[in-house]
């Protein structure tokens, strides 16, 4: 009887601990293709739960799978899976990025442990060590004003830490988050970026059946296969429209003043040029003669006064 009671208590404790298990949503997205990760998405879709240790394994493979020019680690404390649908109008930038990315993974029910709050410390350090990155940007407040634009080629890790999501006016809060992410992505001098978006503080509200994140985007067949959507090579032969210039070019023909066709077309202009030139020459000659006559007269008068 005592053994039965202990078993019941143990089973009840397990139920209580599982029901109070904290979870957070997480999204991984890459502009370029990072192949070999879709199997984790398929396994999660079947189990509907993702342990923290497995997520860290997936995140590290996601980071090391291909080199990017910027790695964004975005923390929105208090973020719930339902926020992606409840405030979709305010999260247009995130929605667009996920839609146009070559690789995107969603985990609505990521079970976290006590050391989860240091997850970005681990992932940022792993990224910098994996790709020998020495430049880091951290935004903890005044995110838009604090971000300093750069134009060099060196890769960077960008860590964005938002305040705790409020209980009320969540739409305004998520609009600010989305506007900040849009600003940062717009200032990075490359579209080749990777994003890890999650919450470093858990909740127990959606552990049972969380709302799926952007179902229409992730149910797209292209999201379920490794397809490179954003890689453009210079060697690719593009099909261009047939040119139709308005000006066909000059005719390669030799012109002559004695050409009959030329004289007929430009005869009046030639006559005006000749008459103008002759008129100018005659006027200059008359002016020169007058000037010369006045000069002689002044010299003669000067000599007469000198002889007196």
Description:
The chain has 308 residues and is an alpha/beta fold. The chain folds into 2 domains: 21-224, no CATH class; 257-303. The protein contains 10 helices and 7 strands. The chain has helices at residues 2-19, 38-47, 52-64, 83-86, 92-100, 119-130, 143-146, 170-187, 215-218, 260-307; strands at residues 23-30, 50-51, 70-75, 103-111, 135-139, 156-161, 193-198. Helix 3 runs parallel beside helix 6. The protein is elongated and about 130 Å long.
Percent helix = 40-55%
* Head-to-tail CA distance between termini: 162 Å
Mean pLDDT across residues: 84
Strands ordered across the widest β-sheet: 2-4-1-7-3-6-5
Q: What is the alpha-carbon Rg in Å?
A: 40 Å
Strand residue percentage: 5-15%
- Coarse structural class: alpha/beta
Low-confidence stretches: 1-19, 233-238
Order of helices and strands: HEHEHEHHEHEHEHEHH
Family: Belongs to the BIG1 family.
Protein name: Protein BIG1
Organism: Lachancea lanzarotensis
Subcellular location: Endoplasmic reticulum membrane
Topology:
Blueprint: H1 2-19, E1 23-30, H2 38-47, E2 50-51, H3 52-64, E3 70-75, H4 83-86, H5 92-100, E4 103-111, H6 119-130, E5 135-139, H7 143-146, E6 156-161, H8 170-187, E7 193-198, H9 215-218, H10 260-307
Parallel strand pairs: 2-4, 3-6, 3-7, 5-6
Antiparallel strand pairs: 1-4, 1-7
């Amino acid at each position: 009887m005592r053994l039965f009671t202990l078993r019941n208590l143990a089973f009840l404790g397990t139920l209580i601990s599982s029901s109070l298990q904290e979870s957070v949503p997480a999204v991984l997205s890459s502009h370029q293709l990072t192949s070999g990760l879709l199997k984790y998405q398929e396994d999660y879709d079947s189990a509907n739960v993702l342990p923290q240790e497995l997520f860290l394994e997936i995140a590290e493979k996601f980071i090391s799978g291909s080199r990017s020019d910027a790695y964004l680690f975005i923390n929105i404390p208090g973020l719930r899976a339902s926020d992606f649908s409840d405030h979709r109008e305010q999260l247009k930038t995130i929605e667009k990025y996920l839609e146009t990315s070559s690789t995107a993974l969603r985990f609505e029910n990521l079970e976290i442990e006590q050391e989860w709050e240091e997850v970005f410390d681990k992932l940022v350090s792993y990224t910098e060590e994996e790709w020998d990155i020495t430049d880091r940007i951290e935004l903890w407040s005044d995110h838009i004003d604090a971000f300093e634009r750069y134009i060099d080629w060196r890769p960077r890790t960008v860590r964005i830490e938002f305040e705790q999501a409020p209980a009320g006016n969540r739409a305004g809060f998520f609009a600010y988050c989305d506007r900040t992410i849009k600003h940062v992505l717009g200032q990075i001098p490359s579209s080749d970026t990777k994003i890890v978006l999650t919450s470093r503080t858990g909740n127990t509200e959606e552990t049972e059946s969380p709302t799926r994140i952007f179902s229409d985007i992730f149910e797209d067949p292209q999201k379920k296969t490794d397809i490179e959507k954003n890689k453009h090579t210079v060697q690719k032969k593009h099909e261009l429209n047939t040119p139709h210039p308005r000006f066909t070019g000059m005719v390669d023909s030799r012109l002559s003043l004695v050409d009959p066709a030329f004289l007929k077309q430009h005869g009046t202009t030639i006559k005006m040029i000749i008459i103008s030139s002759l008129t100018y020459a005659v006027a200059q000659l008359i002016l020169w003669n007058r000037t010369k006559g006045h000069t002689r007269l002044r010299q003669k008068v000067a000599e007469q006064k000198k002889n007196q």
